Amino acid sequence: MSVAKTIEITASSEKGFDDAIKTGIAKAAETLENITGAWVMDQNVKVKKGKIAEYSVRMRLTFVLK
Predict the structure, then answer these.
(1) Alpha carbon distance 50, 38 (integer Å)
(2) What is the pLDDT confidence band of residue 1, given thresholds at 50, 70 and 90?
(3) Which of 2, 11, 13 is nearest to 36 (CA)?
């Protein structure tokens, strides 16, 4: 039997949503083991001078506890 935990994180990127997701998961994986899934809950952009300056995602990560 396994037990999993879910946490919420926010990550951002100047490149795009996909990069923000990958960056967030990679950073979380530096301190969390056994990440098994991610659920992107929200996506936002910051706009400066009429152009997208930053992409941001809020997501929940699930990982299995030892």
Answers:
(1) 31
(2) confident
(3) 2
What is the rounded CA–CA span in Å between residue 9 and residue 5? 13
What pLDDT score does 21 carry?
98
The tokens of 9 are what? 């994180």
Burial of 23 (0-12, 13-18, 19+ CB in 10 A): middle
All residues at 6 or more sequence positions from 31 whose CB lies less than 8 Å from its CB, including other chains: none
Q: Which of 35, 33, 31, 39 is nearest to 57 (CA)?
A: 39
Query: Which tens digit of pLDDT belongs to each residue from 24-59?
Result: 999 999 999 999 999 999 999 999 999 999 999 999
The tokens for 7 are 């946490």
Per-residue tokens: 41 = 């809950």
